[in-house]
């Protein structure tokens, strides 16, 4: 599977967002559109729809909505009423196409697809989350589907046009919000007062109610705006992203929305999580990047259509590469992490949001993992233990994929390991956007075969397979 630069979304485009002189560029553009002769506007609208309508969902409606968003920027000719054609031209002036995988497509994570209809006996449809890299090396989360069975692995057609999510409010508990704020930058008098004014559970938008109710002395103290911006950004780091029911999974793309992920949503590790009551849901962690700092974040979904996205907190919710276990172990939720940037470690949580570090699991000791090691997706439960695919970074920043086996009852204990890597970036796997890298964010087992989709050179996706028993037999036991 290779990147397809024709898979585009229509993003808001604000040229020269800062003011120039006493006016903004946006106001000048609005005035220019409103000054155009009607015949020019009508021809422009027809041309815009002809060239772009088929590339986007409800493109005409999108431009009209966008025109309403920016029309207030106008100066002397700020429009109160616009024709349909003026709205289309104005909306298109503030819209740009963005190729979500214009640079690369890599780092897949495989889980059972929510739709298993239309398959032959013995087949399984797989949903694969991907890291789609576009302009500016900004990453989004896209989806691919495939079918595995006796005939091997085949990717299914990717539908288009792409579908962007409708964004809604997320939900917080007041205690978790306070913990996240303390971890981010601490609490002062103003932020403490806002937190005290929140209900025990609240929606993201309710932060404004508590800010409005601030005591006037606090609200008017010198330069409170930085603190208030932090509170708002924190509240909206929890949100909901929902796609139209008619959309196909392969049309959906999770684009960066909150401030903390503004420069990318990277390397989602999905797992089908057993909730303990017989039901399952999809959960994933991904790396949010704001251009300065990185941190793991949580995605929860029942159907891979409606996604609840949340901030994580606690001393173990740092760095890259958190991967969730697919069920509780005892009364705890567990995850593999790499909090120090080098070693594979274990984290635990009661609620799946606040994480503490439990213990080290595996340290890089072999040449091929000399620089660092980490997980390559959620642990896979087998009758012999938890199979964990790992990556190692060796000389020349070469990434390879290996494997560990953890004890079923005490996953902090490594019971076996694969002495040599399972996948090397050799031959056709060597070159790419980032050379000498093979990497996966999650494999899947079907009828005794481990199917391993993996990124090659941070540029494309290939798939390998091995019989699970063969892999486990090749692992060297580690004495207690």
Describe the structure.
The longest helix is centred in the N-terminal third of the chain and has 15 residues, at 38-52. The chain has 10 helices and 31 strands. Helix content is 20%, strand content 36%. 42% of the residues are buried. It is of the alpha+beta class and 480 residues long. It starts with 7 loop residues before the first strand and ends with a strand. It has 3 domains: 8-99, no CATH class; 104-165 and 238-477, Tachylectin-2, Chain A; 171-235, no CATH class. The strands form 8 sheets. The chain has a 6-stranded antiparallel beta sheet, with no helix packed on it.
Q: Give the averaged pLDDT, no decimals.
A: 93
CATH superfamily of the largest domain, please? Answer: Glycosyl hydrolase domain, family 43
Query: How many structural domains in the coordinates?
Result: 3
Shape assignment: globular
CATH fold category name of the largest domain = Tachylectin-2, Chain A
* Contiguous helical run count: 10
Helix content: 10-25%
Tell me the major beta sheet. Answer: 6 strands, antiparallel
Q: Which stretches are poorly predicted, pLDDT < 50 over at least 5 residues?
A: none
What is the CATH domain class of the largest domain?
A: Mainly Beta
The CATH architecture name of the largest domain reads 5 Propeller
SS-based structural class?
Answer: alpha+beta
